Amino acid sequence: MTREHFTALDVVRIVGGLLFFNALLSYWFTSSTTWGYHGKYIDWRFWHHKILEPELHLSLNELSSYTGENNGRLLLAINGSVYDVSSNRAVYGPKGSYHSLVGKDAARVFVTGCFMKPDEYTYDLRGLDEKECQKDIKGWQQFFQTHRDYWYVGKVELTFDFINKDPPSPCEHVKFPGHIG
Ligand code: HEM
Prior knowledge:
Residues 58-157 form the Cytochrome b5 heme-binding domain. Belongs to the cytochrome b5 family. MAPR subfamily. There is one protein chain. This protein is α+β, with helices and mostly antiparallel strands. The protein is 35% helix and 10% strand. The chain has six helices and four strands. The chain has a four-stranded mixed beta sheet. A hairpin with a 2-residue loop joins strand 2 and strand 3 (81-84). The protein is elongated. The structure holds protoporphyrin IX containing FE (HEM).
């Protein structure tokens, strides 16, 4: 007896077969099932975020728990926008060279590059040139948003408790090689 209609299962079978054949072909030519691609579009964490938590709204306190302890998630923020950088533990994880950027909004240090000065790890931009801040912050936000391995996850609510304190003292700015920002 012949069937007259395609069922959803047939579609799944065909798509599954094509994907399998594609993976096989890719492995034959590149020794990788994804033609050498390892970015966010094949990272389950990216799709988990896209489907199950389209937009996060974190407090600064909540953000501070995403520093990758116990193999956990790594989030960093720049002027209120939060990015997931979990796929690069070598750089942002507890032993990474830029670990000090995660779990907080350190917009200021993205502008100044004064990494050795602890009070630069803040979103207090007072005393800095407005145009420089706009350009650098936009540049870094774009870097994380469009990066192959990182993605935007939502917002952190910034408070302005620092307003009654002095802003960080001036420091000599250092720019990222390659002029990002
Ligand atoms: C405003 C100044 C700077 C900022 C905000 C900055 C920030 C960053 C960030 C966020 C990364 C990680 C990039 C990624 O995720 O792929 C990075 C990587 C790197 N940066 Fe900087 N950077 C600055 C200046 C510098 C300077 C002056 C140097 C060298 C003299 C430098 C050397 C490096 C190196 C070598 C890496 C690669 C790190 C690694 O893969 O372990 N950066 N930088």
